[in-house]
């Protein structure tokens, strides 16, 4: 399977290409680069305006053309005026010929889309989802191999008693060392 909303599987050791419909949420940032690491996060953890989420969902479902969704998102999320969006040109100043980024019809459609999305989401709040990237999760302590034994590696009762005695002596040594340090600190304070 595949396509929008469909499931798919990737066989082990295989690489596939998936085209994902995306819009930029932050007008004015540099173009994405494959050299930079990116993380996919829930939009609810980044966007506070439910109308933006509604527009992105409509675009992802194929209900809205890309340019219309992009103009609408930049207007709402980055607060770019309709006039600035209408005046935006493709390319950079180094290009001899620069076309309008959005057509007049795309701006009109985006304005209508924003009005409808705001009306549809009026009174709704965006609730962030509990989500952490693997790198943000609580660190798990590594397993100490001495905590586990394999069959046949168990300690005999004599070895176990000797190990327990060594542990008790270590604890007593730690307590007497702490007591000496405490007495030394008291003497210095006097």
Question: What can you tell me about this protein's structure?
Answer:
This protein starts with 49 loop residues before the first helix and ends with a helix. It is built from 5 helices and no strands. The model has no long low-confidence stretch (mean pLDDT 81). 14% of the residues are buried. The longest helix has 33 residues. Helix 1 crosses helix 4. The chain is mainly α and 190 residues long.
What is the gist of this entry?
With 190 residues, the protein is mainly alpha-helical. The chain has five helices and no strands.
Number of helical stretches of at least 4 residues: 5
What is the typical, i.e. mean, pLDDT? 81
Instruction: Write down the Rg.
Output: 31 Å
User: What global shape is seen?
Assistant: elongated
SSE series: HHHHH
Helix content: 40-55%
Strand content: under 5%
What is the β-strand count?
A: 0
Oligomer: single chain
Features:
mainly alpha; 5 helices; single chain
Structural topology:
Blueprint: H1 50-60, H2 66-77, H3 82-87, H4 104-120, H5 157-189
